Amino acid sequence: xxxxxxxxxxxxxxxxxxxxxxxxxxxxxxxxxxxxxxxxxxxxxxxxxxxxxxxxxxxxxxxxxxxxxxxxxxxxxxxxxxxxxxxxxxxxxxxxxxxxxxxxxxxxxxxxxxxxxxxxxxxxxxxxxxxxxxxxxxxxxxxxxxxxxxxxxxxxxxxxxxxxxxxxxxxxxxxxxxxxxxxxxxxxxxxxxxxxxxxxxxxxxxxxxxxxxxxxxxxxxxxxxxxxxxxxxxxxxxxxxxxxxxxxxxxxxxxxxxxxxxxxxxxxxxxxxxxxxxxxxxxxxxxxxxxxxxxxxxxxxxxxxxxxxxxxxxxxxxxxxxxxxxxxxxxxxxxxxxxxxxxxxxxxxxxxxxxxxxxxxxxxxxxxxxxxxxxxxxxxxxxxxxxxxxxxxxxxxxxxxxxxxxxxxxxxxxxxxxxxxxxxxxxxx
Length: 429
Hints:
By secondary structure, the chain is α/β, with parallel strands linked by helices. It is 18% helix and 23% strand. It is built from 7 helices and 18 strands. The longest helix is centred in the middle third of the chain and has 15 residues, at 254-268. It starts with a strand and ends with a strand.
């Protein structure tokens, strides 16, 4: 079974918590803090495996989690870092955030390794929070929370040329003649159940990659038949070869067939019709004399206004095939050589559960305002307060969560100290 889409859940490793402990040695009954830092959580990294050509692996495994960092230990020992998680995908795989559809990464054209989710930062042990006024801190920083995403994997074949047309018009026969691909060929509809890729080698020039897009019928863009599953594979291509049965062996009208397929391409993505097309009028080996000339003339006249060239071929005998390939190569040479790459537009934003509780109190003995609770711990785990960006986020957090309002309600004045576990701040409006 060929699979070119999959939905999976990925999660990086949580950072290990900092440790709270104190030196306990002979003759040193009141040793200082010696709690070590937590280890960093494992990252989630996607890499291209050129030996893969489907997403079948993801039909059975849907959840991928990196290893958490180890908690810190006493004697200033740092916890071990969590192992990174490496996820292998075929070249050409696009990662989309499931809810928004935004692109997280495009694993193609040199982008063979990309970090998608960062592991959580390890929390600092209580050794970092000793001050002249707090020589025995009983607080350590929690490890940064893991990052998590539901993502859609979408495989788009990397090919220069897309081969389209109704079933049974000779696409597989054509592909097997001009490339090293060996698709199964039989005389019934939907024999091709996955996109076939092949490399066309041309004398005296660089070749190109061609992809057979299977199963296109009327209504494919709306999910009828199998074609809708494979339309995505034509989006990376630069030129479209439209193969039709010019001899009407099955009684079909080739002109009507082309218009119907183009309508499906337009319905799926209007940009597809902007790609250069060339019509390969196939099966001319069963036409003779004036029949052949009339069939080609009708097609040429029908698509003259669309500036679509018509070339007569026989995939069985090879007649006209070489000329078609060189015409396609000339079209490719006149196009922008840059590959079609999808630019990421998704930015990961951590979410803090606003239902978690917190408290705001005044400690008259220490003469500080204490802000504590699970919501505060979660925020501290996400935020690097030593950076300008992190401190800006921290100030916004205090304001949007009503913490500043509660501090003012307790009578806080400018210059007073606010303590969030091991962090002390002076309050100024």
